[in-house]
What we know:
127 residues, mainly beta, Immunoglobulin-like, 5-stranded mixed β-sheet, 51% strand, elongated
Amino acid sequence: MSDNPKHIPVSLTVARVPEGGNTGHERYFFVFEPHPVLVRLSDSRLTFSLSDESPNYIIEDMITSDARDQIGPFEIAPSGREVTVAVRNSVAYLVQVALLLRDKETGETVVCDPQVVCRPPPHTAGG
């Protein structure tokens, strides 16, 4: 974890379930913490990390539909267990993001989509 207020750590827990999941034809359940991911400071960084409870997954890609130039380049750690991305946070905006994971046991792709809310700091008079 980081003490830097511009760095936001986000934990992702994923599990294969017999039914009732929220992704992968209801075969997987995922949860992000915090959720939603609220970015309050300009030029921040998000780090999405797979939790210890999710050892059978790796992050293969990150996709975004960002059309307002809020999400910058991302970098996946060599372990495949985390991805870090720059967030400009210059306009109020709900950014669609999808993390594409690989289930190492089944080979299936699992799509996990956190809500990322950009809410830049207000501009104050005189500065």
